[in-house]
Design goal:
There is one protein chain. This protein is α/β, with parallel strands linked by helices. 40% of the residues lie in helices and 15% in strands. It contains 14 helices and 11 strands. It has an 8-stranded parallel barrel with strand order 1-2-5-6-7-8-10-11, surrounded by 5 helices. A two-stranded antiparallel ribbon has the order 3-4. Helix 7 packs parallel to helix 9. The chain is globular. The two termini are 19 Å apart. The chain binds (3S,4R)-3-hydroxy-2-oxopiperidin-4-yl beta-D-xylopyranoside.
Amino acid sequence: MPAVFPDRRRLLLSGLALHVLSACGGGGSAGAAPSPAPAPAPAEIPALKAHFAAHFKIGMAADPGGYKNAVANPVILKHANSITAENCFKPASLAVSPGVYNWATADELAAFAAANGMVVRGHTLCWHQQTPDWFFTGTAAEVRARLETYVHDVVTHFKGKVACWDVVNECTSDDASSAYRNSRWLQILGPDYIEHALRAARSADPDAKLFINDYGTEDPAKLARLMTIVAGLQAKGVPLDGVGHQLHVSTTSPTPANVDNALRSVAGKGLVNHVTELDVSLYNDPGSCFASRTGCAADITGDATLLAAALKAQALQYRALFNVFKQHASLQSVTTWGIADNSTWLSGFPIARGNRPLLFDATGAPKPAARAITYDSYLP
Ligand code: XIL
């Protein structure tokens, strides 16, 4: 039986009670002004980590500044049993100079996770962005050694504290010219850099699960390129446990069928699926917006009518995606890229613009999207 949406029921009941009271002249002592209607109970939802416990962990991405503020802190504590550092585990944050590390903020996050029953998804070891230039200087042998040393040192530091690593991030090409993104890693080391990073991670912590993480896996052509990379690694016996699907999506794209296809393909290779960076932008931008920052949709957050329609479409998209997620036993973790709409990378990407892509609003209250994924009978 579908769950009844309790907030609506409560509102109906309290409205009914008020009506009866006022019809009877009740609600206050004779002669006194009628007491004000009680504020409706806060529209709450169940803890997502409990609600989806039979299916997957619920994660949220933040740095300490992102989860310590008064809006986000109660939300992540109530709903998440997994956390991903939004930035403080990246090479740009950890790697000061060769062999010198800045662990403080990342250690703080790992301690917060341990104290609050959250696993840590380590994000990320090898990427073409947010990586200091000195990684890429010198001979290919030196660059390889630097990569392997970095992966070894970081994974060793967090051994036992990080459950899984996005070892390689965004290594798949966006066009058909190659399976591999034409990054500095590829240019210097060739495709084997992926293998070097994965092997270094496995040897540093044999218990940590190792992932390749990428965006656009819901595009069948890009998925095919990623699966070519995966098949090549598996043929060589390279350690790889799963694929992370970022899922930075919009209210109209992708179709549930394409997400289903991506999860099915990865599971077909015997690998685990994680959804790693889910957010649903209010905007359906053309490709030019991402390529050249042109043609991006205009900010709608100041227009109440357009905003309400977009939040409704967003709720339906979140529901459609979670309905696919729940069908995949191989999907073990679903992380949103942020906690609440008070802080989202999409307010600056691809252009500066109001955006509200998460399940909780800028005050930390559950949005229609949060109700849509927890109450089947709720109509956004
Ligand atoms: C983003 C962070 O959210 C921003 O704060 C930072 O300025 C840039 O990186 N794909 C990823 C994430 O794998 O690491 C990115 O995070 C978002 C896109």
